[in-house]
Amino acid sequence: MSNDLVSIAERLDQAILTATATPQLPKGSEIEAATGYAVQAHGIELRKARGERVIGVKMGLTSRAKMEQVGVDEVTWGRLTDTMRREEGGTLARADFIHPRAEPEVAFILGRRLTGEVSLAEAALAVEALAPAVEIIDSRYENFRFALGDVVADNSSSAAFFLGPRAKPDTDIANLGIVLSINGAPREIGSSAAILGHPLRALVAAARMTARAGHVLEPGDIVLAGAATAAVPLQVGMQVEARIQHLGRVGFSVV
Ligand code: 0L1
Ligand code: MG
């Protein structure tokens, strides 16, 4: 990888470590999605060198609401590491992030390896459990503004996540009601059908897209299917809760 791309990965990594936004890549020097994935992989190597472990992936921009919120219209993915996982029912320290937003997600926990071109049926068979989840996205770019390759380089904005209790893998997830509440009041309401028409399609896309980058989904991995609603900016004092019909709830407070 060129020195320029290494330095983008290092700049994004510093933005994470210092919770300080970095300027957008200058107009005309935005990177292609494929290059963005190489930069993302390098950023993850920097995290692994600090002892972090990859424990799954997140799919991004899998719903129209999300694509419209950020003006990018392609599905993306990023890696989840162990230090990004937070205790369900616990806290999220606002100061650890730049401009965090929360979004409700369906999570898959895999029971077997899944990679490459797979059918919906094969993807379903690989699922050991489902869970309600909240992803915290925190673009490392100023003003949450980016083009496709830039956001891919930035690990698809992924910053942290909360996972709720496990639900049975054969739960019908085609059209589940999803509510994201702040301080007990519903803020965003959606349906799992907004996630590529069916959240399992996000898992199929995860197997295919990660394989292209030489990344294999392994048993035990967590896959976030992507949000069904727009993301909500977080402030200190908020109690955040996601409820997904038949899957349950997951919540935390922002301190
Ligand atoms: O998880 C997501 O859908 C986010 C992907 C990146 C775009 C954003 O920062 O909202
Ligand atoms: Mg997300």
Automatic annotation (TrEMBL):
<dbReference type="InterPro" id="IPR050772">
    <property type="entry name" value="Hydratase-Decarb/MhpD_sf"/>
</dbReference>
<dbReference type="InterPro" id="IPR036663">
    <property type="entry name" value="Fumarylacetoacetase_C_sf"/>
</dbReference>
<dbReference type="GO" id="GO:0005737">
    <property type="term" value="C:cytoplasm"/>
</dbReference>
<keyword id="KW-0456">Lyase</keyword>
<keyword id="KW-0378">Hydrolase</keyword>
<protein>
    <submittedName>
        <fullName>Fumarylacetoacetate hydrolase family protein</fullName>
    </submittedName>
</protein>
<dbReference type="GO" id="GO:0008684">
    <property type="term" value="F:2-oxopent-4-enoate hydratase activity"/>
</dbReference>
<dbReference type="InterPro" id="IPR011234">
    <property type="entry name" value="Fumarylacetoacetase-like_C"/>
</dbReference>
<dbReference type="Pfam" id="PF01557">
    <property type="entry name" value="FAA_hydrolase"/>
</dbReference>
<feature type="domain" description="Fumarylacetoacetase-like C-terminal">
    <location>
        <begin position="77"/>
        <end position="254"/>
    </location>
</feature>
<dbReference type="GO" id="GO:0016787">
    <property type="term" value="F:hydrolase activity"/>
</dbReference>
